[in-house]
Structure of 2-octaprenyl-3-methyl-6-methoxy-1,4-benzoquinol hydroxylase:
Amino acid sequence: MKPFDVLVRGSGIVGQSLALSLARLGLQVALRPDPVRRDTGPDVRAYALNPSSVGLLQGLKVWDALPPQAATPVHDMHIEGDAPGGLIEFSAWEARVGELAHIVDAAVLERELASAVRFSPHVSVVDNDDVRAPLTALCEGKASSAREALGVGFDKDDYGHRAIAARLTASTPHVNLARQWFRSPDVLALLPFDTPGVGHSYGLVWSLPNDRAQALLVLDERAFEQALMEATGGAAGELTLASERAAWPLMRGHAQAVSGRGWVLLGDAAHVVHPLAGQGLNLGLADVAALTQVIAQREAWRDLGDEKLLRRYARARLAPTWAMGHVTDGLLQLFAHPTPSVRELRNRGLTLVNHLSPLKRWLTARALDS
């Protein structure tokens, strides 16, 4: 069997990106797709990628291969609270960047990554578990069986919420504006998206308590659209479903260890955060960048699976992932609190932040680089 330097388990966006990144270092990489691809319904996922993630994909020659409609720039973002006047407005112009993020069609991105993998001379897709390599990178997601086999625990907190995702068309242009509503107890995001032949469209991510989410999922299309209009107040125009609805349970979690002798965890196998900040995939791609840098800078005599080497990666990712997990959890808990005094305080806080330009620029900078 061909000798490999690294075995990457998991062929999602993080796994394929890692395989290509390590291949660019001249390493021989075996990519093991997920043994079981669970059918979770229509793939309506749309991710908000920050400039750091875009830069990584550009370096892999994948970003520029995406069709124009697959990546929509976000120039402005409005975050509204659950009381009049509670609003933060972010803008690329104020942050002095070209765009705050790009909204990307997940299915198209996965397809382009798979195409790049097929043409990479240093990446081999394998379909069995007999591959041996000095380093195994687990990118299988939060339910990683290989992580479990290693005996690495995964601490998680179920929110008791579900996320509903769908594609929508709108009666008015999105003008590259992302909208988000924080309310007790739900969070609703409209991500601007350019659909061929449609133009005015959004990716919907709506996080709600399980019972409320289930009630919305059983509604017919007309009734669901009416619920959307009530929730958004018509701010984005008249919204119409352009796809089936998908849903999944929400949780927060982290692995008890992300590296050891001969193995390392990346992406959702290492950490899961609430989608309200849209940073889950950015954290995973930042993992890819950090591990690639650690391996590129390793001493010539040091083995790829050296535990001390891999601890450098673990240390590099500890603070960013810890901070994002606590920030997203804190925001969710704050806006889920029903007490009127807390409600007034959090909405005044939004308004205060909106008028403090230096603080807004600092918050934007943190989101631009996970």
